[in-house]
Amino acid sequence: MDWLESIVLGIVQGLTEFLPVSSSGHLVVVPALFGWDDQSLTFDLILHLGTLIAVVLAFRRDLLALLVGLFGRGDDPAAARRTIGLLLIGSIPAGIAGLAFGGFFEERFSDPVASAASLYVTAAILLGAEWVIRRGEGTAAIDARRAGVIGLAQAVAILPGVSRSGSTIAAGLVQGVSRESATRFSFLLSIPAIAGAILTQVPDVAGGGFTITGPVVAGFLAAFAVGWLAIAWLLRYVRTHSFVVFAAYLVVFATVSLVVLAA
Question: 254 vs 41, which has greater pLDDT?
Answer without folding.
Answer: 254
